[in-house]
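Our working data are protein records whose layout never changes between entries. Getting from the letters to the tokens is the skill we practise here. To make this concrete, we reproduce a full record directly below:
***
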Amino acid sequence: MRPSHRPRFAATATSISARRQRFVVLTVLAMMLPLTSCATMFNGATQLVPVDSRPARAEVFVDGVSMGFTPVELELPRNVDATIDVRLGDQVRSFVLRSETQGAMVGLDLVPVAAAGGLVFAAGALGGSIEGGQITTGGYLLGAGLIGASLVPVVVDYGTGAVFRLNPGEIVAAFE
């Protein structure tokens, strides 16, 4: 007598539920992907800093290197402090641009994927089943992996420098 078995094409309620769960998770992740590494996408690694003087046509130096005459827009890396000297004749006005972290950008990086991971983790906790004496841990592992993956956008934004901004964002040098 042949042991009874299910046909290969017959789907059980468990497999349909697991497929639906995977589909929902992948759909949510696909929808949230554009929101990750938002500082890199919206800010870029450099910042334009306008420099002007009263009167105009003063020479502008960034860390000792001549960059032109006012009015000028400097494209500077966001993650490095810079010293700006504006010279008109023998008069010099010095400014220090400080690289500061934009906390809101870091928060925006963490929210989408971590939220998805938290939802999947909770779904695993609520929908865990016991099959053959073992608790299925797929939801837990996927949720924990997504929460860990939420750090990737932060690393990208810090690596490119996009999470920083230069302050002050504009310079006006006044001469007598």
Q: What stands out?
A: The helical segments are 13-32, 38-42, 103-127, 138-149, 151-160.
